[in-house]
């Protein structure tokens, strides 16, 4: 899964994003999604981040979010952390576009 995240303009928002994303990574990886790469556009549209996640299938992210709070078995600490990072991201992210990718036969991985 490739997520293109457009941040609100400004270096302060990029810094805030860099601080909150390790928390997001921890929550997602606890549910089986794996961050493969994260980058930011340097030439082109400013304050645009790209996150490449390894997921099982298109439904995996629904299961990730369920595990972070919607499922009864989620701990109060996980629910609280998920709510905190969601609020932090809402303040700094302008938009997000998600793509589910499939490897081509010649891809090395």
Overview of this structure, please?
With 109 residues, this protein is an alpha+beta fold. The chain has a single domain, classed as Alpha-Beta Plaits. Helices cover 44% and strands 25% of the residues. The chain has helices at 11-30, 60-70, 76-92; strands at residues 2-7, 34-40, 48-54, 93-99. Strands 2-3-1-4 form a 4-stranded antiparallel beta sheet. Strand 2 (34-40) and strand 3 form a beta hairpin. Helix 1 runs antiparallel to helix 3 (76-92). The radius of gyration is 15 Å and the shape is flat. The mean pLDDT is 92.
Order of helices and strands: EHEEHHE
- What is the CATH architecture descriptor? 2-Layer Sandwich
Percent helix, as a range, is 40-55%
Major sheet summary line: 4 strands, antiparallel
> Which overall shape is indicated by the principal axes computed on the Cα atoms?
flat
CATH class bucket = Alpha Beta
Give a summary of the structure in a few sentences.
The protein is an alpha+beta fold and 109 residues long.
Keywords for this entry:
about 110 residues; alpha+beta; Alpha-Beta Plaits; 4-stranded antiparallel sheet; 3 helices; about 45% helix; flat
Helix and strand arrangement:
Blueprint: E1 2-7, H1 11-30, E2 34-40, E3 48-54, H2 60-70, H3 76-92, E4 93-99
Antiparallel strand pairs: 1-3, 1-4, 2-3
């Amino acid at each position: 899964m490739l997520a293109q995240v457009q941040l609100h303009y400004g270096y302060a928002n990029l810094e805030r994003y860099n601080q909150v994303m390790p928390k997001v990574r921890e929550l997602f990886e606890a549910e089986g999604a794996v961050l493969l790469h994260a980058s930011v556009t340097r030439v082109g549209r400013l304050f645009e981040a790209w996150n490449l996640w390894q997921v099982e299938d298109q439904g995996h992210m629904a299961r990730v979010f369920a595990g972070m709070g919607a499922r009864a078995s989620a701990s109060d600490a996980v629910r609280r952390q998920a709510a905190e990072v969601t609020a932090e991201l809402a303040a700094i992210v302008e938009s997000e576009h998600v793509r589910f990718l499939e490897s081509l036969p010649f891809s090395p991985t």
